[in-house]
Amino acid sequence: MIAEETQSRLKQLQEAFLAENAKLNLSAFRTSEACWTGNILDSLAALETEPLRALSPSPNPNPNPSPRILDLGTGGGFPLLPLAVCLPQCSFVGMDSVRKKVAAVQRIIDAVKIPNVSLVCGRSETLAREGAHREQYDVILVRALAELNVLLELAAPLVKVGGHILCWKSLKIEQELKDSLLARSELSCQMEKPYEYDLGGTWGRRQILLFRKRAKTNAKYPREVGEPKKNPLL
Ligand code: SAH
Q1: What is the pTM of this model?
Q2: Hey, whose CA ends up nearest to atom 14 of ligand 1?
Q3: What whole-number distance in Å separates Cα of residue 148 and Cα of residue 186?
Q4: Cα–ligand 1 centroid distance for 26 (angstroms)
Q5: Alpha-carbon span 29 to 233, nearest angstrom
Q6: Is there a contact between 166 and 137 (Cβ–Cβ < 8 Å)?
Q7: Residues with Cβ < 8 Å from 54, sequence gap 6 or more?
Q8: Is the pLDDT of residue 33 over 80?
Q9: At what angle do helices 4-23 and 99-112 cross, to 10 degrees?
Q10: Is the pLDDT reported for residue 72 higher than 70?
């Protein structure tokens, strides 16, 4: 159940996104209905996963420093923006290498006034070598970025030991899972029980894969810009 006030902010977000999407090609979901289900509800599915459920507002008046969540390859701002609206106590960062997408997401943030998000423009292979980003995040979100073996090499260096990587995927990915075995062991990412959900209608069932990072990432990862994709761990 989404509270009424949150629902109205999410509708504002949808309108601001659709206005940007009409100017730039950010997403294939161009109607309100497609954007609501395919982008907003699909992003919010993560609220039901264990790592994000654990971040629900705390009754403690002096909570620990706010959890840090990174959306790697945020594109037009999904899953970043709907989750930032629903988890105001967390601090979100959206990362993308394409400057015009980052600029469009910033305009959406300004229009809807989402205070708990900042954006960084650059390649994750480079940013993951900087102290401001390496092993700095409690949770990394990854939707529609790359195959598992590639995305784990990009995401693992950014997450804290004990933190989680959440990957939005379709259900039939047996081969992709097999092809990720070496990456999982090299990067100490242990798979936990995936979260399955149904968006209804023709959207159907999907899943969010969960990986927990068990140890510090070897300094050799990620490899140079472009290398994880060109020559994936296999
Ligand atoms: N997460 C969004 C966008 C997916 S498209 C969604 O689900 O709708 C993938 C995005 O990742 C693109 O915008 C691309 O520019 C960005 N990207 C790909 N590789 C990247 C890298 N190594 N570092 C930063 N951004 C990257």
Answers
A1: 0.97
A2: 73
A3: 13
A4: 11
A5: 32
A6: no
A7: none
A8: yes
A9: 140
A10: yes
